[in-house]
Amino acid sequence: MNSKHLRKGSRQPSPISKGKIRLYSNRFCPYCQRIVLVLDAKKIPYEVVNINLVSKPDWMYDKTPSGKIPALELDNGEVLYESLIIADYLDEKYHAHHLHSKDPLQKAKDQLLLRQFTKVINALLKTVSAGRVDNDEADIITEGLTTFEKELANRPGPYFSGNKPGMLDYMIWPWCERSDVLKMFGKEYILRKDKYKRLMEWRKMMMEDEAVKKSCCDVNTHIKYLQSYRAGIPDYDLLS
Amino acid sequence: MNSKHLRKGSRQPSPISKGKIRLYSNRFCPYCQRIVLVLDAKKIPYEVVNINLVSKPDWMYDKTPSGKIPALELDNGEVLYESLIIADYLDEKYHAHHLHSKDPLQKAKDQLLLRQFTKVINALLKTVSAGRVDNDEADIITEGLTTFEKELANRPGPYFSGNKPGMLDYMIWPWCERSDVLKMFGKEYILRKDKYKRLMEWRKMMMEDEAVKKSCCDVNTHIKYLQSYRAGIPDYDLLS
Q1: Quick one: pLDDT at residue A94?
Q2: 3-state secondary structure of B184
Q3: Which of B42, B64, B84, B105 to mutate: most A Cβ within 10 Å?
Q4: Which pairing describes strands A71-73 and A47-50: parallel, antiparallel, or unpaired?
Q5: What span, in angstroms and rounded, lies between the C-alpha atoms of A131 and A126?
Q6: Member of which family (chains A, B) (predicted)?
Q7: CA-nearest residue of chain B to A109?
Q8: In terms of CATH architecture, what is B22-98+233-239?
Q9: How far from each other are the two terminal CA atoms of chain A, in whole angstroms?
Q10: How far apart are CA B112 and CA A81, in angstroms?
């Protein structure tokens, strides 16, 4: 998972062997982490090839449009991309440790929450790239977190999926893991611990999950990476 | 399906009876038509309440955020929205006439195509609201249609899903039904019939499908509606 990131000019890894799957990933990409979490939670064996996002190897462009990652390569040569599509594929293909609810209504409601969380992600991205929180973004983040806080109150818990994390938990986790980086901008007040008590409890419980533990980074590592990213020289190999 | 569109001040329909489902819809909304197609293809009984989009009844805002439609109301009072989420829900809940492929890989590949089609939809929307086709939009439309043309060549056909339409066929249909309105802007050359032979053949076959026939409008009706829409006074009740 912490292998060096391949860049333009790097040799293409050999074809994958029969029965294996390979994830083209990046150690600090939250969308890639979604797939790492799903693979680890479902205990699916896989190999990782890390890709440098500012200097992608040419052969990556032959695998997905614009060399997009995360990308999942199968042993028949097919390559899937788009994190949510890969996650759904893995959950449907590998039946052990089902992550989506088997109740179609519950699954649909989780999907709606995930759509709302996508808006929170976009607001966070704007915040990180601007280095400040504008009012519009603050509203979207607050509204999103309030919805999720209420939702936890209405579910048996402690996870959104019940007594162990499910698809919704894992799909939102990568950004929740990084939420403390807001203190880098002096904006930690957005995530007021008194206002989002249940979410804070959920976050603590998620940290105890085996799959989460495997890919989780501490806040200082995230801040160090983010500083290199904002300086225009992202240090993807920080943990290699 | 052609009932008058309820507007601000209209009385709220009575609660739905046990075992029934209700679609809040609009006769000319292509996203709503997606759900109508799924319901009809799966032969699920449903009732329709049409909503005026420029003057929504107040009670619609209690059902979905911003009174969004299409919205599917269940007999337990729950309301789902977002066309793709509703479509997936219906396909998982009602097993007869399965629309998604049962092969997870095929389903994932169809989902990727659908993502690409969403870009075509957005380019078409820009075109319709601007009344002209800019180069960027023309490129996106051409690239999308070329992908779909190639895809049809690589599949057994005649439909994307084989010998009868499946989820991908129905999810892209509403915009394909409307494609001839481009002639309203003198831009029909974008859909060159010689370049997209298989897509044209597919379009003809879709017109023969029972579910498509039920909601399909002729091009003149679409143009008439679009003219009223562009004039700022959308005539949703054109067919009532």
Answers
A1: 97
A2: helix
A3: B105
A4: unpaired
A5: 8
A6: Belongs to the GST superfamily. Omega family.
A7: B80
A8: 3-Layer(aba) Sandwich (3.40)
A9: 9
A10: 8
The helix (run of H) or strand (run of E) holding residue A80 is strand A79-81
Cβ burial of A163 (10 Å; 0-12, 13-18, 19+) is: exposed
Contact A109 B82 (CB under 8 A): no
Q: Which CATH number fits domain A104-208: 1.20.1050.10, 1.25.40.10, 3.40.250.10, 3.40.50.1240?
A: 1.20.1050.10
**Composition of chain A by helix, strand, coil, percent to 5:** 55, 10, 35
| Chain B residues inside the 8 Å CB shell of A105 | 74, 78, 80, 89, 93
Nearest to A105 among B78, B105, B115 (CB): B78
- Cα–Cα distance, B88 to B99 (Å, whole number): 9
**What's the CA angle centered on A161, arms A213 and A209, to 5 degrees?**
15
Instruction: Say yes or no: A98 contacts chain B, CB-CB below 8 A.
Output: no
Domain A22-98+230-239 CATH assignment equals 3.30.365.10: no
pLDDT in tens, B175-197: 999 988 887 777 666 777 788 99
Q: Is A112 on the interface with B (CB under 8 A)?
A: yes
Nearest CA in chain B to A110: B85
Q: How far apart are CA B172 and CA B117, in angstroms?
A: 7
Q: What is the mean pLDDT of chain B?
A: 94
* pLDDT at residue B132 is higher than 80: no
- Alpha-carbon span A214 to A212, nearest angstrom: 5
Low-confidence ranges of chain A (pLDDT < 70): 187-189
pLDDT band at B1 (very low <50, low <70, confident <90, very high): confident
Give the separation between CA B108 and CA A74, rounded to whole angstroms: 13
Structure-token match 């419980």, residue found: A205
| Fold agreement between A22-98+230-239 and A104-208 | no
Alpha helices in A71-218 (DSSP H): 83-93, 104-130, 135-154, 167-177, 197-207, 210-215
Question: Does the distance separating the beta carbons of A115 and B108 come in below 8 Å?
Answer: no
Q: Are A228 and A235 in contact (CB under 8 A)?
A: yes
Q: What is the ipTM, given to two decimal places? A: 0.94
| CA pair distance A207, A212, nearest whole angstrom | 6
User: d(Cα A144, Cα A121) in Å, to the nearest integer?
Assistant: 10
* CB within 8 Å: B105 and A74: yes
Question: Distance of alpha carbon A239 from its chain centroid, rounded?
Answer: 17
